[in-house]
Amino acid sequence: MSEHPVNRSTFDQVMVPNYAPQAMVPVRGEGSRVWDQEGKEYLDFAGGIAVNALGHCHPALISALKKQSNALWHLSNIYTNEPALELAQELTNNTFAEKVFFCNSGGEANEAAFKLARKYAYDNFGPKKNEIVSFYQSFHGRTLFTVTVGGQKKYCEGFEPVPGGVLHTTYNDLDALKAIISDNTCAVVLEPIQGEGGVIPADPEFMRGIRALCNQHNALLVLDEVQSGMGRTGELFAYIGLGVTPDILTSAKSLGGGFPIGAMLTTSKVAESLGFGTHGSTYGGNPLACAVALEVIKIINDPKLLDNVGKKHDRFRKHLEAINSKYAIFTEVRGKGLLMGAELVEKYHGQGKDILAAAADEGLMMLVAGPNVLRFAPSLIIPDEDIDEGMARLERAVAKVVTA
Question: Which residues are recorded as binding N(2)-acetyl-L-ornithine (predicted)?
Fold first, then answer.
């Protein structure tokens, strides 16, 4: 019996049952390694679901947080603060955007983006132009609005009635979009790589086609880069590599390197529609979060680090292909940079969670994207030896499931 005052069974006693966490309870992390209550070591291929972009307890982030914690914690938006202004400058200097809105999460960033898209259309074209077009299997958050825009019906079940004016069509199918977009469309919303939907990258031609259709119908292109952004694909944001510029972009997850923060980026023209009093966030632009995020972006937005993301992708892919040649377990390995998915062959459909559990036994933390896709979203600076060791652990886990 553990001598710790709380353990996994405490969760069942005191927490709402919307999560089903693993049996072990992590207590400490350093780099790409984590230790649980019993002192067992794990390699982290999950990255807190693409959040811990610089691993656990990065010295520069600890330093930024400590420094800011001795200066100023919270003000509310009746005042601005230096870390928020510096972070906004850094984001606008390095992206298409001219204006930034800060909040605390990806869901909040998307909520702000969808509200802004509607308000911009209302201000410029009138109340009829209010339809948002999204894609099946997409994921944009858990608020009632963002879950409606998301393309997975299961997340809306039991929460109806949901907001109206949201249409869905097939990802990577430009003809399907052409059939549904109209002059009543205020925005087309998508992830450059569908994360929860199975790690599915957008085709560059599809992205270019969407941009052209948005221009044609005076609709805004909204890119949800909550999971794909902040160096994850080997570019600061995935849109840069695709060569398609959005009107609104959302960021969170890796933006704070583990400290909660979200941001919505847009142009000056579009930003005008969020005038004084139209939207807000008590904690948005919090000095602690912004000080950490400023350090994160300065470290990540480095050509050498970004170039290394591609090299680490190749290393992951090589290992996954070696495992596949031995066990014939994957139909496809896909993704970009350090957001990767390995889809299970039909024989092993529904067994993603079994591989996750076997991996945990072997000392490896990883993810799924749906029941049939193993997902990898580790630290962008994960050492090569940790990739090699983690993949050896994954192979042992796969072997257990295959021979079970």
Answer: 142, 281
